[in-house]
Amino acid sequence: MPSSKLTYRYRIKDSQHRSHLTRLSWAVHTVWNFCNEVQSLAWRRERRMLSAYDLINLTAGASKELGLHSDTIAEICREYATRRKQFRKRRLQWRSRKGSLGWIPFKARFLRIADDTITYLGRTFRFWLSRPIEGDIKTGSFTQDARGRWYVNFQCEVEDPGEPLGDAEIGIDLGLKDQATCSDGRKYNRENLTRRYADKLAMAQRARKKKRVTAIHAKIKNARKDWAHKKTTKIIRRARLIVVGDVSSSKLAKTRMAKSIYDAGWHQLRALLEYKANRLGVLYREVNESGSSVRCSACLERTGPSGLRALGVREWTCRVCGVSHDRDINAAHNILRLGRQTLFRGIP
Question: Hey, CA dihedral for 102, 103, 109, 115, is it positive or negative?
Fold first, then answer.
């Protein structure tokens, strides 16, 4: 049966453990910076990129001195090698006590997990068990957020249902006024969270209240993520095919609409739709949406309003076939058509 790796995140209760976790994270920074240093040295001397195996050998025996488990040090080396390869760099950024958030990876095999407690290196931590842990725990980590709060994350292997819950074929047009418009006429929108908290954020920044600024940013982020999870779940549960336009946030962010673009969270929506679709066996496609809003979905002629000046025109009538369109729903229909074409052509 197919399976997926899901991450369950829980906030740690005990504030008295915060200083202990912080000290362990400093030890993690030491290992990371050591990997960075020896990689730089290996490149200067031999023009060689060190593998995770090389780094693990070079850090052997350091666990007792640093107060970390040997598996934790090995996980840091693997993560370093993976990120360096991913970003194609000779070395990565240094980790510091002030500029880097805490992170302590671990393997599940040397942990003791019982109900809402986890024991790591002889110390027991309690966390809020907001939902049950499902599947087999493989790896995990302690992580710190910008407000200094600590969380424990469990990466679990969970069996996938594998069968779609619905039978609809849905094209999705991503936008600003309506974050997601479906080809069946349903629209999902929320208020602009950046604009909603702009005054409070400005006041806190002028008063130089750094903790308050961080808290507001975290609130915006959490609200955006919560909304995205709920709406993408509703869409996935009624579909067997999902087709989404590949609108580029990075390109549009260079315009005067930058704040609204970032607030819309298109990348997050696509990422959530894709992983949820894979779990349920729903077909997922991303297609080039260029011209989808100006092309009539009935006769396929480009008769719709185009250009920046026409962005305010939300409804229009095709002068060729006479069909009236909602701009976003019409675009969603065109996106769905393109997605179906990829299926017919056998494009993965």
Answer: positive
